[in-house]
Design a protein that fits this description.
The chain is mainly beta. 5% of the residues lie in helices and 31% in strands. It has helices at 123-126, 235-242, and strands spanning 14-16, 24-26, 32-33, 52-58, 63-67, 88-93, 96-101, 108-115, 132-139, 146-154, 183-188, 192-198, 214-219, 228-230, 260-262. A five-stranded antiparallel sheet has the order 5-4-10-15-14, with helices on one face. A four-stranded antiparallel sheet has the order 6-7-8-9, with no helix packed on it.
């Protein structure tokens, strides 16, 4: 079974990303894994705890938040924040994967279609470093509910993972997770909001290949969009976010010690 796999590199998902640009994967447990978008194809990052999807449902009775993975990536005692393997359905056929989330005792179901724009013989489009995420949410209850869908991304600038097992010509190395992260910029357009992760100009201690810019973007037609920055290593801060009623404060303070951002 998936939750008994000891080597994370054995858990595979559909690669999302342009041809030659690196990729990320959403694996069947709903987790984001195998980041190679830092030109680190030999040293994939198995996972970043601050990168995940979550949904908050606010009704007249209570607020409920679910992190949309069955792989607990935070040291949280209350495991009800996470899904069980039975609550996630995964279908993958490159360059698209479809995930259906059906949490028990939760008034919503969620369907995600994630894909990269791979078009036969359209090389210009195929090489774009882009992945799209399209969500369909269904309210199963008879009451109106307020829904907050959150995409959290941990800045991976200056980071790489351990060497892949099939490679024999590169010496083994330990994963590297830079502390020089957390430069976030928000751009509010007419019908979209973007949250971009940037890096310092000089990094003498790390190879230049491990640095880049990454952007989350959401189309805001008919919805409210908020941005929030936090430290995924701080469990109290993570719990404060998960226990909110869906109203995130717009907080971006460019603190290099706070690695992750939510849109």
């Amino acid at each position: 079974m998936l939750n008994k796999v000891s080597n994370l590199k054995e858990i595979c998902g559909v690669p999302l990303g342009g041809i030659g640009t690196g990729k990320i994967e959403i694996t069947p447990d709903g987790a984001f894994r195998h980041f190679t978008i830092n030109n680190n194809y030999v040293f994939p990052i198995d996972g970043m705890k601050g990168t995940f999807l979550s949904i908050t449902c606010s009704s007249k009775d209570k607020n409920q938040t679910k992190i949309l993975t069955s792989s607990p990536q935070f040291e949280i005692k209350d495991k009800s924040f996470f899904l069980t393997p039975e609550e996630i359905s995964y279908k993958g056929l490159w360059s698209k994967c479809i995930l259906e989330y059906s949490p028990k005792n939760f008034p919503l179901t969620l369907r995600l279609i994630a894909f990269s724009p791979i078009i036969p013989q359209n090389y210009e489009t195929n090489c774009l470093p882009i992945a799209y995420f399209i969500f369909d949410i269904e309210n199963l209850s008879e009451d109106a509910v307020r829904v907050s869908l959150n995409f959290s991304w941990e800045d991976i600038n200056g980071c790489w993972g351990s060497k892949v097992s099939w490679d024999t010509w590169v010496p083994p190395t330990e994963p590297h997770f830079s502390s020089d992260r957390g430069i976030l910029k928000v751009n509010k357009l007419n019908n979209a909001v973007t949250l971009s992760f940037h890096h310092e100009d000089r990094h003498p201690e790390v190879a230049d290949f491990a640095w880049g810019d990454y952007t989350l973007a959401v189309k805001t037609d008919g919805i409210e969009a908020h941005t929030y920055q936090y430290n995924p290593k701080d469990i109290e801060e993570v719990l404060a976010f998960l226990n909110k009623d869906g109203h995130l404060p717009d907080l971006i303070n460019n603190n290099p010690e706070e690695y992750a951002g939510i849109l």
